Amino acid sequence: MNQEKVKRILLGQIREYLDGEITKEEYDAMAEPFYSQYCHLIIETSFYKIFSEEIPDCCIINVDEPGNEIEKERDFRKILTETYIRLKEVL
Fold first, then answer.
1. pLDDT digit string, tens, across residues 7-66
2. CA-to-CA separations, 91 to 36, 48, 69, in angstroms, rounded
3. Of 5, 14, 48, 58, which has the fewest CB atoms closer than 10 Å, so is most exposed?
4. What string of DSSP letters covers 12-55?
C-alpha cells in the first residue's frame, strides 16, 4: 500500500456514501479501521490534515451519538460533501 492508494481509497469510501451505495453507519464501519491502519502513510500530507480534522468527529457525532436521525444524516452528508471536495483538490 502506498500513499496515493490510501488517499484514493479514503476518497472512494466517501464517494460510495455520497452516491448512496452505503449508509453512514456502513461508511463509518469501513473507513475507521482502514484509516487507523494506513493513516501513518499519509500523515505528513494536506490530505491527512483535512481528513483528520473533519471525518473522525463527524462520524462520532453523527453516527455514534444519540440524536435526531434526520438532522444527523443531513449534517453528515453536508460535512462529507464539503470534505470530499476539499480532498479532491489536494489529491
1. 999 999 999 999 999 999 999 999 999 999 999 999 999 999 999 999 999 999 998 889
2. 19, 10, 32
3. 5
4. HHHHHHHTTSS-HHHHHHHHHHHHHHHGGGTTTSHHHHHHHHHH
Do 9 and 34 touch, CB atoms closer than 8 A? yes
CB 77 within 8 A of CB 18: yes
Report how far residue 86's alpha carbon sits from residue 91's, in angstroms, rounded to the nearest whole number: 9
Q: How far apart are CA 50 and CA 45, in angstroms?
A: 9
pTM: 0.94
CA distance from start to end of the chain: 16
